[in-house]
Amino acid sequence: ALRLAGGRSRCEGRVELEEQGIWGTVCDDGWDIPDADVVCRQLQCGHAVSVHGNSAFGRGKGPILRDELGCHGHEQHLWECPAAPEHDCSHKEDAGVVCSEHQEWRLSGGRDGCAGRVEVFFHGIWSTVCDSSWYDLEAEVLCWSLGCGEPLQKLSFGHTLPGKMLYQCGSLQPSLALCHWIFNKSAPCYQSQAVGMICNGMGS
Fold it and tell me: Based on the domain organization, do 71 and 149 belong to the same domain?
């Protein structure tokens, strides 16, 4: 089995493999985009947008199960890739990845991290969010997921970033990624503004 740990979604984090019931990690020696692409695709997380070494997502536990991975990028599973039979690594060299399906959010340009324009990181770029389906539920999910408390006020800005995301939440979720979303479809976002929020919490 395979998973990503220590990230902000299931599509970002430290690469962990399970062999014979024991979870272990991958060493960052030779860790590159073709290796990470195999991980992202195997987890149905798209493709790799960035690779990380030096235990960027925290140090793992257990054995180090792969070193000097040499994936071509087309393998179905990480364990099909050639690797060194022995390793000379410690957990401070645990490998990590951010996959294209990872989503994270920020409020940009406000007085602190709990106010400003809503921006989403997806497919390796920051994009704005359309206000055409942004109501109390979406606002509540965002403010809570950022640790910013309750929504106070909705704002409107221009779309100045490359992409546009639209969210529709049917119920209160821990994250906007669990709501219905569409990326870069022009019709639902036609004549929309980029949404902004002021939440009642104090962000960093």
Answer: no
